[in-house]
Specification:
Layout lengths: L1 H10 L3 H75 L4 H10 L11 H8 L9 H19 L1 H15 L3 E3 L15 E4 L1 H6 L1 H42 L6
Antiparallel strand pairs: 1-2
Helix pairs in contact: 1-2, 2-3, 2-4, 2-8, 5-8, 6-8
Length: 247
């Protein structure tokens, strides 16, 4: 319709009408492009905010897991320390001995990589994260946790060795039926203090495990600091991107 009017105006050499009709066409195209750009920007803000929500939930879960693991590591270091002190002193606290021997040959859970972050990378949507510091922290966390997970055997081997030598001193609770929970699995009924005192391999294994447990604790502290920093930057990014609503 507009093109027909422009053609009619040109035949009549009605330059004013040509100019008006042309301006209408240009303005319509301009408005159409602006609306399209606005819709794309709005969709990107909504998508970005959804991604930030997922990352936040993911790292809040990792923080809770890390806190539980840190609390367990403190208990493990305490228990290992009590056994070492008892061997050196030649006597143990009977109230804690069986529980300590049953507990020290374990490690708390190591936090894993963020599934939300790895999906962002695999789908090429890291560009939606505008904060360069946040991107750096996310890559740094993923790299560190992946490295530590790959080196997990360096933590686990000394603990397995400790488990082997401690087994000599344990009297297992034998129920004659399958365990119904992990708490029952390998439950210790009693401990022979004499074996703990007389076997030099046990003290060596305990001291090695103590260093491993302490090192593992420091790794968890480092991971927790990284998670806290990421959560802080996620909150800043959320404020920068807004709520994903139309202006």
């Amino acid at each position: 319709m507009i093109l027909r009017r422009i053609a009619t105006a040109l035949r009549k050499q009605d330059w004013f009408s040509v100019m008006i009709e042309t301006l209408i066409v240009v303005l319509g195209v301009f408005i159409g492009l602006q609306v399209n750009n606005w819709n794309e920007a709005r969709q990107e803000r909504i998508e970005t905010h959804s991604l930030l929500d997922r990352l936040e939930r993911d790292f809040e879960q990792q923080l809770a897991l890390t806190d539980r693991s840190l609390a367990q590591q403190v208990q493990l270091i305490d228990a290992t320390g009590r056994l070492i002190t008892g061997i050196r002193a030649g006597q143990f606290d009977e109230a804690t001995l069986a529980g300590d021997v049953a507990f020290v040959d374990s490690l708390s859970t190591m936090p894993g990589p963020s599934a939300a972050f790895q999906e962002l990378v695999s789908t090429g949507r890291m560009r939606l994260i505008g904060n360069a510091d946040l991107r750096g922290e996310l890559y740094g966390y993923d790299g560190y946790v992946s490295f530590v997970s790959a080196q997990f055997a360096q933590f686990g081997d000394p603990i397995q060795a400790l488990s082997g030598v401690l087994q000599r001193s344990k009297t297992l609770a034998i129920s004659g039926r399958p365990s119904e929970s992990f708490a029952e699995l390998g439950a210790v009924e009693g401990v022979d203090p004499a074996i703990l005192l007389e076997d030099p391999q046990i003290l060596y294994a305990l001291q090695t495990a103590y260093i491993v447990q302490d090192n593992y604790h420091l790794v968890l502290v480092t991971i927790r600091q990284g998670i806290e920093r990421i959560l802080e930057l996620l909150e800043e990014e959320r404020g920068t991107t807004g709520r994903g609503q139309a202006p």
